[in-house]
Amino acid sequence: MTHFPNLGGADADRFSVPASVVPPMSKKTPSDPVPAKDSATVVLVRDAADGSGVEVFLQRRVKTMAFASGMTVFPGGGVDERDADASVGWVGPAPAQWARWFSCPEPLARALVCAVVREAFEESGVLLAGTPSDVVADTSVYADARAALTSGTLSLAEFLADAGLVVRADLLRPWANWVTPEEEPRRYDARFFVAALPQGQVADGATSEAESTCWQRPADAIADAEAGRAALMPPTWHTLDEIGRFGSTTEVLACERSIRRIMPRLVRDGERVVVEL
Questions:
Q1: Can you give the pTM of this predicted structure?
Q2: Is residue 86 assigned to a domain?
Q3: How many domains does the chain have?
Q4: Where are the bilayer-spanning segments (predicted)?
Q5: Structural domain includes residue 64
Q6: Cα separation values, 30 from 24, 66, 166, 185, Å
Q7: Is the pLDDT assigned to residue 189 strictly greater than 70?
Q8: Residue 163 lies in a domain
Q9: The domain containing residue 242 runs over which residues?
Q10: Residues 6 or more apart from 199 whose CB is under 8 A from it?
């Protein structure tokens, strides 16, 4: 595997974005910060049809969302306590390995992998699950289960057991760990994963959390943000910059990452905001 360090332009420890794309910043860190909720995010990638590199699946969140409203994001969300169910079938790197990658307890590592599989299915219809020897190609047969997962009336473990499926952790790779700054009223300890779109599957916009979805080259997504056509949170911006430097999904998945916990510091500098990592 090829080591590919965290990037960010000339200085890997900082980068800048237009001030217009960053939500209003709190000026003071509270003495008792809100605890950061464990969450999982997946960067779905596919090879561009014209051979120009990779594309990523993005969603523009509806403006009624309590967190990151109107922002363009990757699919993801908070960990549900049922995501830690140890009965779930599993193929690929064991929870203990994910715990080492993300420097967290093994039960949490299991929950993070299950959460990202669940969130990917709920928000994009992409199911990173299958039998021990094959990956689901036609996810439409599980439309009712997807709705039940989204409503919370069905857990991932229950769905997979009923369908005779297992989590395919071998389809996922660890990418990053971003933590919302302490001055924010809503905070997340987000572990980022990457996964290639499984053959035969289609990512869709059938979620109430997004007003639009698309596949886009990372450089084009960043250009949209620079031009004011989209808004990106700093972790999304930085991840797009990193992913856009690869020529194929094979290269993305072969990237060996050293995961560190990043709580960025945002400093306004005129019309731009400097993000210090």
A1: 0.89
A2: yes
A3: 1
A4: none
A5: yes
A6: 16, 20, 43, 10
A7: yes
A8: yes
A9: 35-276
A10: 135, 137
